[in-house]
Amino acid sequence: MPVRGSVLVSGAGVAGTAAAYWLSRSGWDVVLVERAAALRTAGQNIDVRGAARTVVRRMGLEAHLLAAGTGEVGTRFVDRRGRTVAEFPAGTADTDGPTAEMEVLRGELVASLDALLRDRVAHRYGDSVRAVVQDAEGVDVEFAHGPPGRFDLLVVAEGFHSHTRRLVFGDVRLRDLGQYMAYGTVPRTAEDDHWWRWLPAGRGRAVMLRPDNVGTTRALLAFLGPPTGLERRAPREQVAHLREVFADVGWAAPRILGALAADHDDFYLDRVGQVHAPRWTHGRVALTGDAAYCPSPISGMGTSLALTGAYVLAGELTARQDHAAAWGAYEALMRPYVRRAQQLPPGGPRLVNPVSGVGVSVLHTVMRLAASRVGRAVTARLFAPPADSIALPAYP
Ligand SMILES: Cc1cc2nc3c(=O)[nH]c(=O)nc-3n(C[C@H](O)[C@H](O)[C@H](O)COP(=O)(O)OP(=O)(O)OC[C@H]3O[C@@H](n4cnc5c(N)ncnc54)[C@H](O)[C@@H]3O)c2cc1C
């Protein structure tokens, strides 16, 4: 196959590995640079829905990812004693509820995508883009550590806080959704089951436990509040803060906080937000995945947008050959899809994280109604992620 041109992909997450796969498969010469010293396989349960299911099927990964799923059987809202208030079993349709049919650990997905790149894509770990200068024919890139290089195109897939996005596009609008989320992995206990258990704990807080397929349990602590810079503090200080915020919450909170205090390895805390970049391309540089259009973890669509966007970007580049035409087609196909994915239910995180005790009781009632047969039909139509709302082209 003739080489179409050279592409530097920056960021070996979901979007970066997927873009590298589709580009290399179509004859592009791809270098994948990742800031971390190795592939980052941390992360928790993520959903692959709708059009993204088609993308992983076209990669030959669907059966493997279904078999390597977390085994989550559905979502249960619980009270402070762990008793089920309402449950939403996982359906076979991707749009059925919080638990998608394809739920995998992020690490499993990224490792599976990366395994497709062996012998196709040059990896450069422990390095990052320091400067970008482009002209009509190409992009000159300086790296923090390695020698500089010239590429035909640069694809930025560095996630929410992308540095290269800032270098090329300046500051883009980040929509803060008023919530912190902390993730960690805790030892599994006999009491843990295969449900995603979700405690709305009042005062805008939530405690969640989710099953995995590697013998541990995934924990999530979320709380509403303004940005305080907590996300930039050391993990030890972040856990100490969480201990204060969740001090009076029972159920799984003490167990989670105890485990997080002992082990920070897989601990991660950040603000919940969205990326609203007015343009996704500039000259010979394109943004994809969270760096371009993060819809936030509460949308359930981040990974699906990353997989779909990488596929469309690479497909259009290959189908059109002229990168400017490809950028136009990428925006035209993906913008409406992204707009729908970024439209959260009214109130955003506030809707399912009531502040007062009365609010928690109201939420319990609403969840019970929503979990009924009629309720599920209505809520599926109102709140289901718009995972299928794109006509995915079949590229050669
Ligand atoms: C370690 C980790 C854990 C996560 N855990 C969860 C989770 O539990 N639940 C959830 O919903 N979402 C999680 N996410 C986010 C989720 O992966 C994304 O929302 C979604 O899959 C879109 O992926 P992405 O490839 O655009 O971004 P990401 O998956 O964030 O990948 C971005 C990649 O770019 C790399 N990178 C960043 N800056 C640079 C740079 N300057 N140069 C080179 N490389 C760079 C990062 O190290 C990372 O490998 C996690 C992301 C990471 C990186």
TrEMBL record:
InterPro entries according to UniProt:
FAD-bd (IPR002938), FAD/NAD-bd_sf (IPR036188), FAD_aromatic-hydroxylase (IPR051704)
Stored Pfam families: FAD_binding_3
Q: Where do the FAD-binding domain residues begin and end?
A: 6-322
* UniProtKB keywords: Monooxygenase, Oxidoreductase
Domain of life (superkingdom): Bacteria
Query: Which GO terms fall under molecular function for this chain's record?
Result: FAD binding; monooxygenase activity
Q: What is this protein called?
A: FAD-binding monooxygenase
Organism source for this protein?
Pilimelia terevasa
